[in-house]
Amino acid sequence: MSEMRTLTLIATFVLLARSDLPGQASSERTDSLLREVLVRDSTLVLRARVVDSLRRAVARPVPPVDVVHGPLRVRTLAELEARVSDAVDSLAKLVERRGGSVIPSRVARRVASVARDSQPAMFGHDHFIAITPDTARRSWTTAGRHRIPLRASSGAIMSVLTSMVEQVAFEGADSTLSAWVMVGRLPLAPASGREASDAHVDLATTESLALRRCRAGDDLACLDALGIDSVPGSRLSRWYAPSDYHSLLRTVAPPREDSTAIVAWLRCRNERDDTACRTAAQAVPDDRLPPPLSATARFMVLREVLDAGGTGAYDRLLSVSGSLRTRLAAASGEPVEKTVRRWLALVERSRPQEMPVSAGLVAASVGWAGALLALTLTRRSPWT
């Protein structure tokens, strides 16, 4: 900023020195130019202060404590060191379990940060732990930055760091693999019960011909529903039967420029007219039909592939050429059908359990109901 002020003043005085205006005219022009210099200089000062303030808010100092385990490196504070060390040690075991060279090399290029932070609240400040994926990258946004409670356990810190490392490990994956996985992460942690139960709900509630055939033991239908391999025919005929069209058309619509199909779509949704449902479904382009299974199911299948393949499975998945089916088989070291059957058995066993109701809750509910009934009877006005 000081250099700009100096250059501006030099340019102004050069113009004044070269001016051939005599007497009063020269004096008036000098005053006018000086006023313009002062106005522009004050504007530069204000803008520089705003920029400096933003830089100080975004570019926070790097925490002093360095926690290193294998390719993982995290900067943190002394007060958080014990929890962060436990989290990094646990995460390093997951990275070592996958093995190979791709994941460690990608992870080693990032240095995460786990530090204490705060933000203004209605009364004072809210304090929390801020986890940033890479201290070497300065960003004007908070994208990728996570906040967890200040008293969060090492397990909670590990969960956030694991998610970040999963994203880093998947960076640079080819378009075919990225489009199939959809979630942009590489599974490192074991499958959670919630993940498997969500996949079961997806499998059991989606009205799809392909899923019914898959659950009946048709391996080709499973591969087709998962997007690994396809069978002859359009997606509509492969994935959905006419009886599925009404449910399908709750999530997708024909092109808006096809007025006939739009009218049929509305009749299908509102009146469940089978003919209208068929007309509307057949008008939906193949590339707009939603797959029967969500990204959660594919993510679980990828985990099964990597678990079966053991050390270096991810390296093989990236290095082998060919179709997706060929690459998954090379990574797992077994036929894809076998991997998918194991995934299907896991999902079928993961049916969500009904929420248990404790005896204490039942007794409390009965007690409150009795108390309210007694209060109502005692306060009831007599008939007169």
Helices and strands, with pairings:
Layout: H1 2-18, H2 23-58, E1 65-69, E2 72-76, H3 81-98, H4 102-108, E3 112-120, E4 125-132, E5 146-149, H5 154-170, H6 175-181, H7 193-205, H8 209-215, H9 219-225, H10 235-239, H11 245-248, H12 259-271, H13 274-283, H14 295-309, H15 313-319, H16 324-332, H17 336-348, H18 359-378
Parallel strand pairs: 2-3
Antiparallel strand pairs: 1-2, 3-4, 4-5
Helix pairs in contact: 1-2, 3-5, 4-5, 8-9, 9-17, 12-13, 14-16, 14-17, 15-16
Question: Would you write up a description of this structure?
Answer:
- The protein is of the alpha+beta class and 384 residues long.
- It folds into 3 domains: 2-58; 65-171; 193-240 and 289-348, no CATH class.
- It is built from 18 helices and 5 strands.
- It has a 5-stranded mixed sheet with strand order 1-2-3-4-5.
- Helix 4 (102-108) crosses helix 5 (154-170), helix 9 (219-225) crosses helix 17 and helix 12 crosses helix 13 (274-283).
- The longest helix has 36 residues, at 23-58.
Provide tags for this entry.
384 residues, alpha+beta, 3 domains, five-stranded mixed sheet, 59% helix, 8% strand, extended
Tell me the distance between the termini.
91 Å
Structural class: alpha+beta
Average pLDDT, to the nearest integer?
84
DSSP strand tally: 5
Shape: extended
**What level of helicity do the residues show?**
55-70%
**Mind describing the biggest β-sheet?**
5 strands, mixed
Give the spatial strand order of the biggest sheet: 1-2-3-4-5
Separate helix tally = 18
The low-confidence runs, each spanning 5 or more residues with pLDDT under 50, are: none
> Secondary-structure element sequence?
HHEEHHEEEHHHHHHHHHHHHHH
